[in-house]
Amino acid sequence: MQARPFSMQVRHEDDVAIIDLHGEINAFAEAALNSGYAEADSTQPDVILLNFGDVSYINSTGIALIVSLLARARASKRRLLACGLSAHYVEIFTITRLADFMTVFPDESSALQTTAVTDSTA
Amino acid sequence: MHSVPTMIENGWELLSDFSVPSEQGNERLAMRQVTEVVQPLGLPPRSLDQLKTAVAEATMNAMEHGNKYQAEVPVLLQVLRSDTSVLVRISDQGDPAPADALEAPNLEAKLENRQTPRGWGLFLIHNMVDEMKVTNDASGHTIELVMHLKGDGHAGQTV
Fold first, then answer.
1. CA-to-CA separations, B7 to A38, A113, B79, B129, in angstroms, rounded
2. What is the per-residue pLDDT across A17-38, written as a single tens digit (0 to 9) for each?
3. Residues on chain B touching A71 (C-beta within 8 angstroms)
4. Helix axes B121-128, A60-75, angle to 10 degrees
5. Residue of A96, A98, A101, A104 for testing the chain B interface, max B β-carbons within 10 Å
């Protein structure tokens, strides 16, 4: 259970900005997470997808950071989605009700497929 | 280190007794040590994940709110077991006055800036374990987390 510092990268697929999250989302992740979100938001995408596939740990401070990102997304009328969460963190997103406000997908391809279908029927 | 808990007299066996310095990030140390101690008990994976999160959050609360992140003031942990359950006791050395009643986290309120985005710790703990008890005495605050050895984890409630 080695501590893994947080890091992230932003990439784009059509109108979706994908933020690949790595390591641990805790108080130490705040600056990098906020800067990653700002980078993703700067291209004015319709959708921002948080990919948690390589995240090993999220604590309550990390949940608070995600709540703040969700508030920012809602303020700028962007859809914020999540994918790649482990079963344990899907449970935490459910009990905190984050999953009511940001759809949680098992993986990136299912998230992108759904956004593509949504866009084509909009 | 601690006064002997009543629960030991009622059939609880002490498995481990250790401390961690009150420094940010050290909840991971507590979580790792508790995981090693309870591994042989064969908790179902979901229960183990829930216990790990509860231990981490309770240790964070003890380090932050109890010991004010003073590294030289440790958080004390005990792991005990009975025939049916595992118990983790986490104690800080904070002001013995009971903590103020916390507002229950409400995601809508947080998204509308009517509540701080923080304040999830106790809510998560409560939803992760089968039983939880908080006590305050002259030496500080103690939280007891109980997870049953059988069953597939605690079914959490949404807010």
1. 51, 53, 12, 17
2. 999 999 999 999 999 999 999 9
3. 110-111, 113, 117
4. 120
5. A96
How many beta carbons lie within 10 A of that of residue A74, not counting itself? 15
Three-point CA angle B145, B148, B153, nearest 5°: 90
CB B88 within 8 A of CB B144: yes
Contact B123, B81 (CB under 8 A): no
As a whole-number percent, the residues of chain B with pLDDT over 70 amount to: 84
| ipTM of predicted assembly, 2 dp | 0.88
pLDDT tens for residues A80-99?
A: 999 999 999 999 999 999 99
Q: Which residue of B has its CA nearest to A92?
A: B124
CB contact under 8 A, A59 and B123: no
Which chain A residue has its CA at the smallest distance from B47's CA?
Answer: A88
Angle between helices A87-95 and B45-61 (to 10 degrees): 60
Instruction: Give the residue numbers in B contacting A (CB under 8 Å), as ranges.
Output: 24-25, 27-28, 31-32, 35, 46, 49-50, 53, 56-57, 60, 105, 107, 110-111, 113, 116-121, 123-124, 127, 156-159
Write down the pTM of the prediction.
0.89
CB contact under 8 A, B25 and A68: no
Q: For strand B85-91 and strand B75-81, is the pairing parallel, antiparallel, or unpaired?
A: antiparallel
Cα gap B145→B119, rounded to integer Å: 19
Q: Which two tokens stand for residue A110?
A: 């299912």
Tens of pLDDT, residues B97-118: 655 556 789 999 999 999 999 9
Please report the pLDDT score of residue B3 as a whole number: 43
